[in-house]
Amino acid sequence: MRRKLVAGNWKMHGSLAENEALLSAVLAGMGDVKAGVAVCAPYPYLAQVQSLLAGSAIAWGAQNMSQHAKGAHTGEVSAGMLKDFGCTYVIVGHSERRAIYGESDTLVAMKFAAAQAAGLTPILCVGETLEERESGVTEAVVGRQLDAVIHACGVQSLAKSVVAYEPVWAIGTGKTATPEQAQAVHAFIREKIRAQDAGVADGLVIQYGGSVKANNAAELFSQPDIDGGLIGGASLSADEFLAICRAG
Ligand code: PGA
User: Fold this and answer.
1) Which atom of ligand 1 is nearest to the CA of 231?
2) Pick from 136, 112, 225, 206: which is nearest to 166 by CA?
3) What are the backbone dihedrals phi and psi of residue 197, each rounded to the nearest 5 degrees, phi first?
4) Please, are residues 48 and 20 in contact by the beta-carbon 8 Å criterion?
5) Which atom of ligand 1 is nearest to the CA of 172?
6) Using CA atoms, how far apart are residues 92 and 163, in angstroms rounded to an integer?
7) Catalytic status, residue 73
8) Measuring from each residue's beta carbon to the nearest atom of ligand 1, which residues come in under 6 Å?
9) pLDDT tier at 174 (50, 70, 90 boundaries)?
10) 95 φ, ψ to 5°?
11) Verdict on whether the full-model pTM lies above 0.90
């Protein structure tokens, strides 16, 4: 049985005061949460998040990292640095990084490999744009994004990762994929991996992301191949986030 994982992606939000208020409220409500829970914070707040969450049931991570281990890369942050602050997870290939910062499938695969080499669990984001969905190439796009990692790191590497299916048209738009739409792509992802390694496919946590809220999480998470969610906007409200965690 896969344990569901609900991860907050704070994006470029928060402050010392806001983070403390948010995390103390979330911690206080964790008693009846069965899913695994994590928050992915901006780099400067990782030390604060570590001190607030150490020893709790909530894991933490970052939203991006360098593909390099060290060196002359001004402004970049390595996986080893994230490990220094107790990170378990790191998001790689979020669609905002692919679209706004030009991250290619190849670069994302390099980040995935560098994360694992340092002992982090990458949360690999995949997903199609609206234009791609409407032209019927959703599976081709998601398949290509997965193949980049499989070719670079091998299918077994997915055993120590999380995949997040995030249709770009559903992110931050309030337009959630229907449970059926999401389930269809999740099943495609799992079947694609199953063709290469059934054990990896059965154990892989595949999150859904894109406008998950308290009022749609339970229906999404009840789909057979949806193993929790990657939560943007709703992870900034303790009540909303906790309600989503309880749906997992
Ligand atoms: P959203 O973002 O929940 O605000 O749509 C999800 C994400 O980008 O990970």
Assistant:
1) 3
2) 206
3) -160, 105
4) yes
5) 5
6) 10
7) no
8) 9, 166, 171-172, 209-212, 230-234
9) confident
10) -60, -30
11) yes
Three-state SS string across the chain, please? Answer: CCCCEEEEECCCCCCHHHHHHHHHHHHHCHHHCCCEEEEECCHHHHHHHHHHHCCCCEEEEECCCCCCCCCCCCCCCCHHHHHHCCCCEEEECCHHHHHHCCCCHHHHHHHHHHHHHCCCEEEEEECCCHHHHHCCCHHHHHHHHHHHHHHHHCHHHHHHCEEEECCHHHCCCCCCCCHHHHHHHHHHHHHHHHCCCHHHHHHCEEEEECCCCCCCHHHHHCCCCCCEEEECHHHHCHHHHHHHHHCC
Q: How far is the CA of 71 from the centre of ligand 1 (A)?
A: 32
Which residues is 162 bridged to in the sheet?
A: 123, 205
CB atoms within 10 A of CB 76: 14
Residues 6 or more apart from 71 whose CB is under 8 A from it? none
- 28-66 pLDDT, tens digit per residue, is 999 999 999 999 999 999 999 999 999 999 999 999 999
Q: How crowded is the C-beta side of 232, counted as CA atoms within 13 Å? A: 21
Query: Rounded to the nearest whole angstrom, what is the distance from the C-alpha of residue 106 to the centroid of ligand 1?
Result: 23
Nearest to 119 by CA among 81, 88, 148: 88
Q: Top-level CATH class of 5-162+171-247? A: alpha beta
Instruction: Spot the catalytic one: 103, 166, 186, 240.
Output: 166
pLDDT value of position 1: 75
Neighbours of 18 (CB within 10 A): 13
Closest among 214, 217, 205, 145 to 177, alpha carbons compared: 217
